[in-house]
Amino acid sequence: MLDELNFLWSRYSTEPYSEIQGTKLRFASRRFQARYFVNPPVQPTGEVRMLSNIEIHYGWQCQVNADWVRELDFNLKPLSLRQLQLEALRETLCGADFPYLWWFYKSRNPKIRTVYEDSLGVSFIKLDGVWQVVYSCKKLGSLVGAQGSTNYESIPANAYFVVVENESVAHCQ
């Protein structure tokens, strides 16, 4: 699978995307189930453990890929995040614009929050007294792309983000 991922990435990261030429593929996690990230739970499931305090940035769903992702039946065919990454790269070679399912925007003044992880591997924070899913860019790999920077792959190594409605909301945070 790694060879196929690297091959597809090398095909994607050529023209017309010269800003990401020569960048290495950020592999998504093979341990976590994609369905919990695509259709996240509203609150932690099972035992919750505290991880650490981190900066929280903002992101939004990449609408151009939302349709084909919604069509996937995760109950019929359980996928890891890495398998979903393979599907996303295959989609780009079949006409999709990007392999990204989420966009990340680095906040100017990020909030510091404690991150918790539930028994499914989904990360949460308490934001204004409400559990909120927080996404780890490291777990998602190249399923998340950067906006507002020099290229789609310039994401801080251990960044986390909360998904908001759209890009304009992310910029206002």
Order of helices and strands: HHEHHEEEEEHEEH
Largest sheet: 8 strands, mixed
The residue-averaged pLDDT reads 90
**Rg result:** 16 Å
**Runs with pLDDT <50, length 5+?**
none
Provide the number of structural domains: 1
Question: How far do the termini sit from each other?
Answer: 38 Å
The SS-based structural class is: alpha+beta
Helix content: 25-40%
Can you tell me the overall shape?
A: globular
Figure out the total of helices: 6
What portion of residues belong to β-strands?
A: 15-25%
Number of strands: 8
Q: What labels would you give this structure?
A:
single chain, 173 residues, alpha+beta, 27% helix, 25% strand, globular
Quick structural gist:
The protein has 173 residues and is an alpha+beta fold. It has helices at residues 2-12, 35-38, 63-70, 81-93, 137-140, 167-172, and strands at 49-61, 102-105, 111-117, 123-127, 130-133, 135-136, 144-147, 160-163. The longest helix is centred in the middle third of the chain and has 13 residues, at 81-93.
